[in-house]
Amino acid sequence: MPFSPRTLDFLFENTLNDSKSWFNEHRNDYNEFVLAPFKEFTEALTPAVKKIDENISQVKISRIYRDARYSKGKSIFRENMWCTFGRCRDLYKALPAFYFDISGNGFEYGCGFYVASSETMNNMRSMILSGSPHFAAALEAYKNQDVFELYGDKYKRSKYPDESEEKCDWLNRKTIGLSALSKDWELLFSDRLYEKIAADFAVIAPIYSFFLMAEEMSSDK
């Protein structure tokens, strides 16, 4: 079954109540309207992401609970749910991944790093500055689409004042990724959703490959 207004209603009500007892009383609703659609969505999308990278083998669906280690002072439950598609990694690797997120504010999807390591970012900068064909392909893919935007905090002062504005948009980021935001509720609640996400992920495949190459350069050292 696809996502539905009941999916968003549950996430909103669960966060509003913020009670383990309320959640347990409504666990069947969570399973039916949140978890089941996410499982169906990830199963439908997995073949598409594996066409981009056959080594993608780790598909994760977030928990409804917040991580108590990092959520002091926050609500017990998330107001959103997300899933990711990436390679299996050890604790110390910052591998890029594709992701999809849903909340009452709409849905977001893209690819990139949660937090890229400084070494990975330096590898990217080296490829950009050296005229790497991997970056050329990534930049071409980025310029030929209008769905995704780059994300990642930038340094307050450009470290590469002599480079073009186009390159500096990549060079001066502390971490990096691509994100698309949408409030197309009709699409979200339709069976066409995974096809749209799969098609958009295919467009940015060269950028994912560029991100992955930067991490693999660190692994080779």
What is the structural class? alpha+beta
Instruction: State the low-pLDDT regions, or none.
Output: none
Strand-residue proportion:
15-25%
- With strands numbered from the N-terminus, the spatial order across the biggest sheet is 1-2-3-4-6-5
The average pLDDT value, as a whole number, equals 92
Q: How much is the radius of gyration in Å?
A: 19 Å
Main beta sheet: strand number and arrangement?
A: 6 strands, antiparallel
Count, helices = 9
Distance between the termini: 46 Å
Q: What is the 3D form?
A: elongated
Order of helices and strands: HHHEEEEHHEHEHHH
* Number of strand segments: 6
Question: Could you estimate the helical fraction of the residues in percent?
Answer: 40-55%
Give a quick summary of the entry.
This protein has nine helices and six strands, in the order H-H-H-E-E-E-E-H-H-E-H-E-H-H-H. It has 221 residues and is α+β, with helices and mostly antiparallel strands. Strand 3 and strand 4 form a beta hairpin.
Question: What report would you give on this structure?
Answer:
This protein is of the alpha+beta class and 221 residues long. Helix content is 48%, strand content 15%. Strands 1-2-3-4-6-5 form a six-stranded antiparallel beta sheet. α4 (118-129) packs across α9 and α5 runs antiparallel to α9. 29% of the residues are buried. The mean pLDDT is 92.
Topology summary:
Elements: H1 5-17, H2 20-25, H3 27-52, E1 58-61, E2 80-86, E3 97-103, E4 106-112, H4 118-129, H5 133-143, E5 149-151, H6 165-171, E6 177-182, H7 185-188, H8 193-203, H9 205-219
Antiparallel strand pairs: 1-2, 2-3, 3-4, 4-6, 5-6
